[in-house]
Amino acid sequence: MPKNYQATMAAIRTAYGHRLTSADLCELVNLHSLAEVVAYLKETETYGEILKGLEPAYTHRGHLEMLLKRNLFSQCLHFCSMEHLQKSPFFRFFIYDYEIRELMNKIRFRPDDIQSYISSMDTWAASYLNYSQEALAHATSYEEIIAAVAQTPYAAVLKKQLQYGELHTQYTQCELALRACCLERILNEAKKQMKGDDLAELKKLIGEQVDLINLINAYRLKHVFHAERNELKSMMLPIPGRLPQRICEELYTAQDTDAFFEILDTTRYGKRMRELDMPDAPESVRLEHSFQVLRQHSARKALHFSGHAAVSLYAVHVLYQIEVQNLITIIEGKRYDMPVSVIQSMLIMD
């Protein structure tokens, strides 16, 4: 019988219990400077340890954001170390996420712009990646980038994308293809790790996250670029979610955003969005925010009802990503002196 790793699951739930609350976020929004934000976070259970060496008055925004992302990574490593789950391929999914981030970071610059990549690379993650970050940094051509990740599934994905043009001009398509590769890998590894209801729960969580990410992207393309079906489909994660293919096709072929809303309103997500209260926000803002809130709700529900550490870890990773993004939104809001009400409207809160 497959193990559920109850100790790890209990630790994840306990740690999530120390998350920042809506009250914490409201207090952070009302602070006046980055230094005050740092001082506040240093007193919290979640961020106190990683920020303890910082002097609030001299903390750089970029350094703080890096530490927040690093803390997310460290938390997942800690959970996996409890019952040696880091040896199981599935439980390395959050490392795959960083591998793709580093690859996309390199692709974002032209291959011979080594200095720009080196200046932005997350060197602290190097020892955990399944390829040499040093080899990636020194790559001066797309072929060398692919060679640097030759022992990973990403090489075949990038080779295929290179057929359509230089990788940095295919940036979005590269990221979508890599993310799809990663999700397929996670699902295949989950089937070896889990059975029955536990596997079904994980597939449900991943399916909902795929749906919501695709809906966010589809709406943006419809709203901003008036994109048509083929363009929309090319910009979606090519992984089946929980929405029927027929509904997806109707959404992609909708003539405009009004038609898109009418179709969306008939889906499970449209019905759940009607329960959310954002009466004063513009339609576009409300919709974007609602999609992100539903992502949070989906992950929280999975965490609460999960019976396996794999579901718990995947769910809490989504939830911590949202929390870190909330903090970055607050930090950037302070940087640009945005009104408190505007910053608060952008946050995803309970």
Describe, in plain words, how this protein is organized in 3D:
- There is one protein chain.
- With 350 residues, the protein is an all-alpha fold.
- Helices cover 67% and strands 0% of the residues.
- The chain contains 19 helices and no strands.
- Helix 10 (154-162) packs antiparallel against helix 11, helix 11 packs antiparallel against helix 12 (196-225) and helix 14 (245-253) packs antiparallel against helix 15.
- The chain is globular and about 50 Å long.
- The two termini are 36 Å apart.
Strand and helix layout:
Elements lengths: L5 H11 L5 H8 L4 H9 L5 H4 L9 H21 L11 H16 L5 H7 L12 H6 L3 H7 L5 H9 L8 H23 L2 H30 L3 H6 L10 H9 L3 H8 L3 H6 L9 H23 L3 H27 L4 H6 L5
Task: Give the tags.
globular, 0% strand, single chain, mainly alpha, 350 residues
